[in-house]
Every structure is written in C-alpha cells, then in structure tokens.
Amino acid sequence: MHSPEASPYSKSGNQLGGILTNLLNGSQAATPNVTFSNQSQWVQTNAIFSISTPFFLNESQVLAAIWKSKGNVSYAIVPPSLMVNNVTSQFDHFSIPLGLLNPPFTTGQGNKASADFQSLSKALEQSLKDTLGSQQLVEPVVNSFQNNSGSSIAYADLYFPPGATNEAAIRQAIVNNLSTFQSRNVTVDPLSVIPAVAVNISFTILNQFYTTDLSNGASGNANTFKNSVLSWIGGNFVNF
Fold first, then answer.
1. Domain spans of the chain?
2. What is the mean pLDDT of the chain?
C-alpha cells in the first residue's frame, strides 16, 4: 500500500467496518484492531473486526465491496495484497519496464520515501491510469527505478480484471499515448516498451545484372536500386 498521510490511517478501520456491517447486516461487537508495519517502505495494514451477524461471511463479496469503495480513500492499494481471511481477488498481472529519457536518474529515486520517487512514480501512475483506463486498469504500481547510464528505468506492475486485456494491447496503448506522459514532464522511450526487431531479408534478382558500382553505397546506381528495394519491402513492414 502506498504511504498515505496520517489522516487516512485513522479512517481505515471505520471505512472497512462500515462495509462489513452493511454487507452482514450486523454490528461491530468490539473495537477493530488496526495495525501497520513496514513493507519495503510501504505500509502493510492488518485490520481485525468482530461482527455480530446472523449471516455467513462471503469473502468474495467483501473483497468486491472494498474494491467498489476504493474511490472513497486517498491512498492506493497493491491489488494482490488485499486479502479477507486469506482470500484475495484474482487479477491479470503485467510487469512493464519503462525506459525514461527524461527526467534523468537521481539517487533519490531509489528511496520510496523521497520526493524524487514519490513525484515521478505519481506522474507515471497517473499517466498509466489515463492511458489504460479503457482497458479496465485496476491499479498501476511503480515499484522501483534503476539507473541505466544516467537514465531511469521504471518498473511498473499493472493489474487488470482477468481477461480484460493482453500485454501486446497494453504496450501498444502506452506507445500510442506518449504525449500523456510528456504532459507530466516524463519522456518514455518507445523502444523500451515495444523493442525494435531485427529482420534480415535476402534474395537474388534475376533481371538485373551486377555492376561494380552497386557495391559502392554512395553511387547513384546503388542508391536508386536501394530505394526501389526499400519502398517495396519496407512498405510491407509499415502495414503490419
């Protein structure tokens, strides 16, 4: 769970307790016990409730209600970390590294508590929400940044409902919406999202006799022939 400010902590028990009492048509038999611990610099939360109710607890219904109410809180949740009696919701999970051309890497990006990490991860996560919302993105989680010769690589985990999308569609959507990231002063290298593929094509031409100037890439004959080949074959790749 991303580190929220102090005020959301005190509200966690009340919000979850309200969901449980409404679902179970009951009342809280005791004050809930909510505790927090360090989870790789994020906040691991554990809440124990005692509910007086005539109904049996359906963990899946509770999970669905919690996710439905997620917009009422100011903090984000790592989706698979949310459990009710050790039952968790199912998600399709995609790990997408994003190479950043801007901003450059800073040592602060290695510390989740730093302003550098928080501002850059927030910009990336909001851009991913804007880009992938139509594919039913549940939550983007930027876990870490790595130094890549002065540039940054952002490691993002993306969670979707089962069957909502696929990795190819996700990567293409990111490349198609680079301006969304740019609007938050983040430049994503498109080749880090969809890498270039090397393709070696060879063939023998029958109705063209070889002349030595064809081996000279600067010659007019070689350039004319090269452009002819590229316009034919290159056009096929563009249309894929």
1. 6-88, 92-193, 197-240
2. 89
